[in-house]
Amino acid sequence: MAWIASVLEENGHEVKILDSPTLGLSLSDFMRVVRSWSPDVVGLTALTPTIKLAYKAASAAKVANENVKVVIGGVHATFMWREVLDSCRDIDYVILGEGEYSMSKLVEAIERGVKPRHISGVALRNENGDPVCTGPWRPIDLSSLPPPARHLLPMDKYTFLDKPTRIVHMMASRGCPYGCIFCATSYYFGRRVRFRKVESVLDEVAECIDKYKTNIFVFTDDEFTINRNWIESFLRGLRERGLDIQWTCGSRVDSVDEKLLSKMYSHGCTTIYFGVESGSQETLNRIGKRISLSQVRRVFEAIRRIGGVAVATFIFGFPWETISDMKQTLKFALKLDPDYAQFTYATPYPGTPLYEIAKRQNLIVDNDWSHYTTLKPVMRGYHFTLKDVEAIFKEAYARFYLRLKFLARQIKMKVFKDLIRTIFKNVVMPRLRGWH
Q1: In terms of Cα–Cα distance, which of 295, 286, 350, 294 is closest to 315?
Q2: Neighbouring residues of 79: CB distance < 8 A, sequence distance ≥ 6
């Protein structure tokens, strides 16, 4: 949204960003801002589990100002634009795909009072009130983007473990060539990975250090290390410019080796996230992951030798899996022993092949989009029930995080108190409130 805002500002528009969850704003707070600021256009973004909240926000915006035009974008709206326009009459337009330039052109069309039929990648209603699309969206040239409008964001609110340490989120690339069946990235951003120029990213890092007085960065790219030349140039640039930052990123086990990992950790990388997904090679092959279990073992052994920190993510509940397959994944996770593990349910998100499989084979048992968080099962399998996969999910978290080996490691790393406090605040207390 900060990039969309920067393009709008570059074209002479006045923009305000409301990060409502971060600021703790209620729907009435949101309406109060719409009334007082009186914008011509309200833009919303939503993921699948938050799409219903976006509908409420769209309706609230219209109540606050009946003349405002409401636009929505994001992954869910892109793939479900017909449903979005049918479900919420208060939404006027849907931006499909990357919205920086489409949104700017749409705002100009609204300003001139013309229908945006000439803009590719926009969905709207025709004269009969039926949803129609102007055509496919196109991936944009990232080097053409101005710096994101972080001055419109509550930068002092982005912190970690409730400490007064600011965090800067940054994206250096978009796209993924692998097309895993459960992930929408390849189908939203495209199969071709587009990197920004290294100098541009380094300039942004330097600016954020100076402006926001922090050296903590999170790179949100789906695959930060896929281009070896790019990542080597980035690391070299950090050293040459004296940019002493602590940063995290996502990677794949087939795009790193011990030499590169050692360089990354020695240049300020604190944590790397790896999508391992399964302890079954058959499942890895069927989901299109294109990695092997031996590659996973080699990378985590290398990280252990280096002394780096890594997170492994795992998924339970692909349709063809048996209970034995899922237990094999848990067994693999325990033996792999990453610093942290994330376990989630296979979730059929719109825009993915998994969604099409689940729909075609009538596997979806929960159609409430707000439950599509990966932390609640919504899809049955051929050989397991929802109760089966829920039991393994709970067992996985208990067995991984209640091990003496894990707890001892946290105490040694001096993060135990912070970890327990965060778990209690974000997991235990919400559950207690839910019980009452």
Answers
A1: 286
A2: 184, 187, 188, 350, 351
DSSP string, 143-191: GGPPPP-GGGS-GGG--BTTBS---EEE--EE--SS--TT-SHHHHT-S
Tokens of 98: 């990357």
Interatomic CA distance for residues 317 and 388, integer angstroms: 9
What are 85's two structure tokens?
């326009």
Q: Which of 321, 311, 348 is nearest to 180 (CA)?
A: 348
- Quickly list DSSP for 370-416: GG-SSSS--B--SS--HHHHHHHHHHHHHHHHT-HHHHHHHHHTT-H
Angle at 282 between CA 278 and CA 285, to 5 degrees: 85
- What are residue 246's DSSP bridge partners? 216
Handedness of CA 191, 217, 100, 124 (dihedral sign): positive
The candidate with the shortest Cα–Cα distance to 327, out of 414, 393, 254, 417, is 393
Residue 56: both structure tokens together = 């409420």
Q: Which residue has the higher pLDDT, 342 or 414?
A: 342
The half-sphere exposure of 138 on its side-chain side, counting CA atoms within 13 A, is 8
The answer, yes or no, to whether residue 415 has pLDDT greater than 80, is: no
Return d(Cα 424, Cα 417) in angstroms, integer: 11
Nearest to 249 by CA among 171, 356, 322, 151: 171
Averaged pLDDT for residues 203-221: 96
Contact 247, 268 (CB under 8 A): yes
Task: Say yes or no to pLDDT of 427 above 50.
Answer: no
Q: Give the span between the Cα atoms of 194 and 202, in whole angstroms.
A: 16
What integer pLDDT is reported at residue 411 of this predicted model? 82
**pTM for the structure as a whole:** 0.92
pLDDT digits (tens, 9 = 90+) for 51-107: 999 999 999 999 999 999 999 999 999 999 999 999 999 999 999 999 999 999 999
